[in-house]
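Weekly puzzle thread! Below is a chain. First person to post its structure in token form gets bragging rights.
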Amino acid sequence: MRIAPVSFNSENTISSNLKQNSAKNYAVDNRQISYQIQQRKRKTAAAAILLGAAAIVTAIILKRKAPVQNIAASAPVQTNAASSAEKSKNIFQLMTGKELLNELKILKPENYIASVENINSGTFLADLHSHSLYSDGKASVKDILDKVALYADYAHEKTGKQFIFSLTDHDSIEGVKEAVKIISSNPQKYKNVKFIPGVEMSFAIKADKTANPFETAEVLVYGFNPSDKKIEKFLEEIQAKRKKLTIDFIENLKQKYGYADFSYEEFRKIYNSGRDYFMMNNQWKVHHYAQTKNAAAGLANSKGTDKSQFYEQIMAQTDNNKTLSYLREKGLVPSSYGDDNNITALCKEKFSPVQRNNGTYYAGENSFDSIVRAFGGDDNVFFALAHPYYLTERTNHVSEAVRELNTKSYGLLKASESFHQAYNSSLDRNAVEKLNKELVSDNEFLELGGCDNHLKDWLSEFPVKS
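Winning reply:
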């Protein structure tokens, strides 16, 4: 997802596309999935045969199990006697990070491009960047997977190859957990899908090209265990931190602007779809809420009407653009109603990164180091730069910044999304290609790509209409 520079200018709009070591095989039955390697070996020793006596054979069974890393609970043991058909029916294997890295060495640029031609021929074979309702996407995990399975069967029929897919919601793996449950409940349906756990993590990066000292960048993480407690705790802490910042800011507004009836529940309903999930750059939403509610409250006072009801009525007339400038443009508030500079200053004070104890406190954002700590320690995990060209909007020194990230990753940063499919069409494609080649060459990155879909219909071009 593209992240526009952080700013508190009301002209920044919020659009529908706001970017919202273990075992190799992971066995699953219809109820459960686990990272598990189990080996059972049966050795039979015959007792010595006494002359003139009948042969007596004693079977001795020696069992040996390898360490188990559970995702949910242990899956049923698959014995060597189980038929391959039985295994196919009852076992679903997640793709590992190591397996994906090997595939990246084989896949070609056209395998990531979801053009009508590539879809029709089955050449489109991998989408490693997508979003669901668990972040800022519009489609449920089930709807996405239904379409992925349908296309994967089609591509397999055309090429004999499986389709590689990853769900990469922003700072959330809840969608991945649901996907694992769905796929493991009916592995036959998804037999032509190679699913790998993914997440798109945001982090603060130094910026020398904007008015702010730091901006937001993103990295794609693949191959982690979705039930890793360390990762779960890290993501929960991110959400708790962002929620607290939002509530504290609104409480400050209530103290300074008592007449406006600011409320967290109101913000949550109008700007956050009634959810307690918070994406990066949440200050945009909070700032726009503060400015629009303040303006609406002033207008309601002049009309002698209930401020909260009036505010809800005018915001119901907006689409995804919930800024004060949009309200003025549509005539919902007078053109003389401008941003309150004190609200902007208060928002900057609460959300902007600051220097503390010779380090940087990032307020509502992650540091790259914290992401490395959370996901590191698993040989199956690796990182990829997400839509790297957008870094050029934040810094004039992209190559240096990426080299620094590569060093800080302790070997986790292994790839770059060179074939990102959702860049703005107005971008200079030659400049994008030039930067991609430079980053790959300088850092010995592998290349990958994804559609970065946020729409309700994943791969709307399929089925191809004749």
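Puzzle host: Confirmed. Bonus trivia for everyone else. Confidence is low (pLDDT under 50) at residues 1-88.
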